[in-house]
Amino acid sequence: MRGELARIAVYGTSEDPAAIRTVCQGDLSLQLDGHSIRCVSWRGIEILRGISWPVRDESWRTLSPRILSEKLHENGDLARYEQEFAIDDGLTCGLVVVAEARGVVTAVLKMIALRDFDTNRAGFTVLHPLAGVAGEQFVLRHSDGSEEGMKFPKVIAPGQPARDIAGLRHVVEGIDVDIAFSGEVFEMEDQRNWTDASFKTYCRPLVHPFTYTIKAGETVSQTIRISVRGNGKDLSTTAQTQLRMDADGRFPRIALAVERGWQPTVEYFDLIRKTGVKSFQLRIGPDIDEAFCRSAGELVQSIDAEADIEIVLPQGVEPETTLKDVARRTAEAGLVPQRVIALPEAYLKSHQPSGPWPDGPTPADCATAARSAFPDALIGGGVLTNFTELNRCRPDPASCDFITHGTTAIVHAADDRSVIETIEALPQVLESASGLAADKPYRLGLVSIGMRSNPYGNDVAENPEQTRRAMAMYDPRQRGLFAAAFAVGALASMKNVAVDFVALGAPRGPFAITAQDQAVQRPYFDAAPDAVVYPIYHVVRATAAMSGRPRILIAGLPTGIAAVATREESITNLIFANLGDGPTTVELPLGCEVLTLNTASFRDAVADPDWLENARPCHDGIVTMDPFAVVFARRRHANG
Prior knowledge:
Helices cover 18% and strands 36% of the residues. The chain is built from 12 helices and 37 strands. The radius of gyration is 25 Å and the shape is globular. A hairpin with a 3-residue loop joins strand 2 and strand 3. The mean pLDDT is 93. It has 640 residues and is an alpha+beta fold. The two termini are 40 Å apart. Strands 6-7-8-9-21-17-16-13-14 form a 9-stranded antiparallel beta sheet, with no helix packed on it. It has an 8-stranded antiparallel beta sheet with strand order 1-2-3-4-12-19-18-15, with no helix packed on it.
C-alpha cells in the first residue's frame, strides 16, 4: 500500500504529516515544521523541546495561521529562517529565526493588528524537555533584573512554578543553557498536567485579564535569545531486549467509554462482545436521557459486563435528591453500577488552584450524596476531565473508594510528534496521580487522542475537514494504525504504577473502535470500503484478554518501541508498537508466533473482526516494524 492509501491507513486521513526540515550549524541543530521550531539540540542533546508562536482565541483554541511566505538561507556558520503569516483578517505577522554555529539561536516575532483583535494568547512559547530538566535547578531572572534560584518541579505542579520571567539559566545533561526573553513578561507552567512532555515558558501571565485585545494598528514585538555551550554527557547506551516478571504488577482491566450517541446499535453488540471487554464506563449528562439509559442497560446485560456510572449534575440542583432520581432511573433501565462518581457540571471546567471555585455543591458534597443514593456501589473521587483538574482540585482519599481522571493528547498541539510525546509524560502523570490517590485504587477514564470535552473554553474545536487539529473531539487518527500504536504506548507507560482500569475507546462515535458511522468518514471508506472495525479494535481485543494478568516488564527496547506483555499459564502474550518516525527492527524472544498490523495487512484487519485468530502468523524472531505498526506475539512454554 503506497501513497495516499498508506496515509489513510496510518493516519485515517490523506492529509500529509507536517514536513520537517533539519537545520545544522556546527554542533547546533534544530527542526522547522512551518508552525514551530522543534528539538533544538547541541552535540546531539536536546536542550529545548521547541519554540512556537501560537495565537489562541477566547476558548484557548489555537487559530490556524495562513503562511504567506517562508525562506531559509544557510550561509557559512549561520542559518536564517523568515516567515510571514496571517491570522484570519486580524493579524499580519513576521518571524525571523537565526541559528549560529557558535551556539546561539535568536527568534524575533512581530504581530500587527489590522483591526481590534481579541485573543487569550499571542506570542512565543518555549518548551523545555523533561529529560535532564525535571527536578533540576535553574536560575530565574526577573523583569527588574534580580535573580532567584529555583527548581523545575519533580512532582507535577498544579500552578505556575515560576513567574515574572525575563530569562532563565540552567544545565541540561551537561550543557549550559541561557534563555533571554524581551517584549513581554513570561511565566512557566508544568505542561505534564496535560500530558505534554515539557515545561512551558509562555506569555501572557495568567494573572492578567482574559480575553484581551490587541488594538487596531498596534504592533507587538517579542524576542527570544538562546545561548548554549559545553560538551554534554555521553548518553549512549547498549542493551538487549529482556523480559522479566513484575513481582506485584497486574495488567489494567480494559474498558470502553459510553455516553449518549456512543452506544452501538443492537446489530453491533456481538462485535463488542468479541472484544472480551467486561467493563463499561457510562456517562450520564446533566439532562438524564432515559432512552440512552435503556440502550446502555441492554448493552451491559447482553455482554454480562460491569457498569461504572459517571454522573454530571446540572447547575442549581440539590445533589441528594437528583442522585436518588438517577439511581431510580438507572435501576429501571437494568443498570446496577459497581462504581459511581458524580460531579457538578461546573467542575467539568478548569480552575486555578487558588480559585475562585464555582458556587454551589462541591465534588465532596456530590460524593456524600452518591454514597447515599447508591449504597451498594463504590464511590469515586477525582474528575471527568484531565489530570490538570485533578491536580488542582484534589479529593480527600479518605472520603472515596477510588480516584479517577482521563487524558487527551491534543490540548496544546495536534501534530503527530506532539501526540506521541504525550506518552513520554504519561508515566509522570500516573505517578503523581497515584500519589494523590494514596492507598485507594487508581482508575483511568478515557485515554484518547481526541478531546472529549474542553475544560478551558466553551466547547471542543469543530473539525469537519478531519485534519490534525488541537482541542478537536473528532481526530482522524482514531481510525488509523496511529491510534492502535498510541494505545499500546499508553498502556506501556503504566508499567510502574498500579492502574486498576483504563478505557481505550468507545463502541462508536468520535472514539470508536468499530466502523459504524461510515457516512461521515470519507475518504477513509474509499480506501477501506469493507471496513468493519478500526485497527485499535484489535489492540482492545488483545489487551482485554490480558486484563488482570501478571505483567511482564520489557527492557532494552530500541528507541521508539513501546511494548506490553503478560503471562498466562503456559503462554506469554506480547504487543509491540513502533512510535517512531522510521522503520525499526525488533528482536523478539525465541519461539514467538507473530502477527504484524501495518499498511500491508491493514485492509484485511479492518474487514475482519477475527483477524487476530484468522491471520496466518509467522515465526521470524526478527521483525522490521514500519512507523505505527503493531506486532502481536505469542510465546508458548513447554514447561507450563
